[in-house]
Amino acid sequence: MKKLKKLGKIMLIGIVSALALIGVGGFLFIKMSPQFGGKPSPEQVTRYVQSGHYEKEKGVFVNLIPTAMDMDFGTVMSLLRDYWNGIPNKKPKGPLPVEKIDSLEIVQKTDTLTRLTWFGHSAFLLEMQGKNILLDPMLGDSPAPHPTFGTSRFTKELPIAIEQLPYIDFVLFSHDHYDHLDYGSIQKLKDKVGHFYTPLGVGNHLIAWGVAPEKVTELNWWDEVQVEGFTLACTPSRHFSGRGLTDRNSTLWSSWVILTEKERIYFSGDSGYGPHFKTIGEKYGPFDLAMMECGQYDTRWQNIHMMPEETVQAAQDVQAKLMMPIHWGAFTLSLHSWTDPVERAIPLAKSRGLATATPKIGEALLLNHRIPNTPWWESVKP
């Protein structure tokens, strides 16, 4: 009996010690890892308060309309059950097809067409009016502070490696979540980018990661900048932010409008459905192309990620002539099959007379010229 008690004490000490080590390790990782980014100065917080979208008492940004994200015990348990059971067709049966490009194709192109290249999820290279623009360039393998905690990309490689990208004139970020803002990508990009544009607060992460402050501009909703023939407008979305355990909603989230004299483009970022889409359409539409969030949704967090049917309606609200579903095709971050977004959104859009684009990763979309729309995902379904 004494031996059993002694063994029990040893096991208990071992378990407690292991938990303590895990706790200390996690605390040190959060405190010391650069992944979690920077924090605002008191002067910046004053500007946030003046934005009209920031609650000083709570230290958080807020949406235009009430957007509850709290889950009761039953909802949490249903999520745990569903994640445990898994989902069919949650990822492709093999690596997705990728069309390769190289820097010479970008630098030496002779046409003046607006060209869009999808990297999967919400990352794009936009070539427009002689400028190279990156949108939410999360080009890493896993959308997490450490690969251990994240899922891997569906492709073995990108259309072009970050190191091979030519000079990038502008980078636009919609918010600071790991599947949109990636520390490793910034480290490789920062010295070849002219300027970064972000919603309020997100620029602090870039500066903490070594980007020169003069190369970062933070914008509030409805702010505009005029730069080299472009109007870049930071527009609302309905979402949230945060990279750590204690910084939820400490930075703003947004969508983006990109205007030139000839063309108008909308990039939704992440968003639940809301009246802001119609307001954006009335102010800046109609759009030649709208890249619309369509993936990583669930009815239990519908306030912050649209269902596919809402994506189609939102595209119509912003007065899109052409819709491209985004936020899918790279990672499994939800409980729907990886092809569910397009299999629901595309038929509905067509039934409503809304043109759609579904390029393969790396396949060029030439605005108003060549619009890829084949169901390429059928060949890689399980």
Automatic annotation (TrEMBL):
Residues 132-328 form the Metallo-beta-lactamase domain. SUPFAM superfamilies: Metallo-hydrolase/oxidoreductase (SSF56281). It holds the Pfam family Lactamase_B_2. The chain crosses the membrane at residues 12-30. Keywords: Membrane, Transmembrane, Transmembrane helix. The keyword Transmembrane helix applies. InterPro entries: Metallo-B-lactamas (IPR001279), NAPE-PLD (IPR024884), RibonucZ/Hydroxyglut_hydro (IPR036866). This is MBL fold metallo-hydrolase. It comes from Shiella aurantiaca.
